[in-house]
């Protein structure tokens, strides 16, 4: 990345002039805290004592026996609030305090980033407003209740598809109008510089821990690392520390929804073209006229038409492979992990598990595969129930 926040041709800062001073100040403070021992120690204590890190790297024995490779799960679902999102929310809340901001705003799709932001705001005594599409409010009601219980105001967004893209649009509009009084905690590796690199650095603890843990368990690095990709924060968090380890194959899994051929999907990196969305240049689902195409995924957290700019760079360079799986495949993987390991995965993570179900039978039994289990799936019961009822009456 260069000093202007570009990863090759991707990234940058495409925002209204009103936001430039705030982004410049945020970048300055972020560069300060990267080498500030007191800041890093306070964050470390919060992650360890408040969030529960390090999260385990769990050998999924029955899943491995069923699929034919050695499959490990990085248990980010065991974080406080139930997902990796808390890593970034705590870091940015500390930065907001240093900036003198007493109010947090955030956007959310699946609700996990909204819950993490509301949690961090409550922990530091800040006001919190979360923007969320009306469709996502309907399919993630439990997380909406959690945010409100934590003291956050949840603002329904009724424009567009009423999902994550629309919530992000509204959050940015609000930020432009109230930039002096609030800090915007962006939840993924998207947005204008310095957000993509800042969020990545707060999430890289996933990959750093994974490296240390797999070396302790197996004495060598994994052969394959797999993670789901919407905006791409959990994937970037586990991929980034392995970028220079050329023996490690990395696979990002996008949401194919009803199938790429139907046009109802969120496969940004394979089907999108380069454009600008939410403040940065990256791959984007768009029409020939440059209008954003509304994405679709059963998974609220992957229902996004853009992707982090560093993922676009990794795609072009070939360092990361990007594939996609459908709703049906993800739900099947969701059920498989429940029944074989007693773990209910988030629908987002189930896309990564579905890809492992496809590829593992072709791998040698000693191939080590690590899947980033980025969140817990009890929040998705309402979305998954109709699919499972089609299969049998287990739920």
Describe the structure concisely.
This protein is α/β, with parallel strands linked by helices and 395 residues long. It has 16 helices and 15 strands.
What does this entry look like structurally?
A hairpin with a 2-residue loop joins β12 (273-277) and β13. This protein is an alpha/beta fold. It has helices at 20-34, 37-51, 61-67, 85-99, 112-123, 134-139, 141-149, 164-177, 195-203, 205-218, 233-239, 268-271, 309-317, 327-341, 347-359, 381-391, and strands at 6-7, 10-11, 57-59, 70-75, 103-108, 127-133, 153-157, 183-185, 224-228, 249-259, 264-266, 273-277, 280-284, 321-325, 368-373.
Low-confidence stretches: none
What coarse outline follows from CA principal-axis ratios?
globular
Strand content bin: 15-25%
Radius of gyration: 19 Å
The largest sheet, given as strand count, sense and whether it forms a barrel, is: 7 strands, mixed
N- and C-termini, Cα separation:
48 Å
Class by helix and strand content?
alpha/beta
Q: What number is the mean pLDDT?
A: 95
Helix percentage range:
40-55%
Give the tally of β-strands.
15
Number of helices: 16
What are the main properties of this structure?
4-stranded parallel sheet; 19% strand; alpha/beta; single chain; 7-stranded mixed sheet; 395 residues
């Amino acid at each position: 990345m260069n000093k202007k926040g570009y990863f090759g041709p991707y990234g940058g800062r495409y925002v209204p002039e009103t936001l430039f001073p705030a982004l410049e100040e945020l970048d300055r403070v972020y560069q300060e805290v990267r080498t500030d021992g007191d800041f890093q120690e306070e964050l470390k204590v919060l992650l360890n004592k408040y969030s529960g890190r390090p999260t385990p790297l769990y050998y999924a024995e029955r899943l491995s026996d069923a699929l034919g490779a050695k499959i490990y799960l990085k248990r980010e679902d065991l974080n406080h609030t139930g997902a990796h999102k808390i890593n970034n929310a705590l870091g940015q809340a500390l930065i907001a305090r240093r900036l003198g901001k007493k109010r947090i705003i955030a956007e959310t799709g699946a609700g996990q980033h909204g819950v993490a932001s509301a949690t961090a705001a409550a922990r530091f005594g800040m006001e919190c407003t979360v923007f969320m599409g009306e469709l996502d409010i309907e399919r993630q009601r439990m997380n909406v209740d959690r945010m409100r219980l934590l003291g956050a105001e949840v603002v329904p967004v009724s424009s567009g598809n009423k999902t994550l893209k629309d919530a992000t649009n509204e959050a940015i509009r609000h930020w432009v109008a109230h930039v002096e009084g609030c800090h915007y905690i962006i939840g993924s590796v998207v947005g204008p510089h310095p957000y993509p690199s800042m969020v990545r650095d707060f999430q890289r603890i996933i990959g750093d821990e994974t490296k240390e843990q797999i070396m302790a368990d197996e004495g060598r690095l994994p052969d394959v690392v797999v993670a789901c990709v919407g905006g791409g924060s959990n994937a970037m968090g586990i991929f980034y520390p392995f970028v220079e380890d050329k023996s490690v194959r990395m696979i990002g899994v996008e949401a194919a929804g009803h199938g790429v051929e139907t046009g109802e999907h969120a496969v940004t990196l394979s089907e999108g073209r380069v454009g600008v969305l939410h403040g940065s240049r990256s791959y984007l689902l768009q029409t020939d006229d440059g209008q954003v195409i509304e994405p679709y995924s059963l998974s609220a957290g992957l229902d996004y038409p853009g992707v982090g700019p560093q993922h676009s760079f990794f795609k072009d360079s070939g360092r990361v492979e990007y594939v996609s799986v459908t709703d049906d495949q993800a739900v099947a993987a969701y059920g498989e992990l429940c029944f074989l390991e007693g773990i209910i995965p988030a629908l987002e993570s189930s896309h990564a598990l579905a890809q492992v179900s496809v590829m593992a039978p072709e791998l040698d039994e000693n191939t080590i595969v690590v899947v980033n289990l980025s969140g817990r799936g009890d929040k998705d019961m309402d979305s998954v129930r109709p699919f499972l009822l089609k299969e049998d009456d287990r739920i």
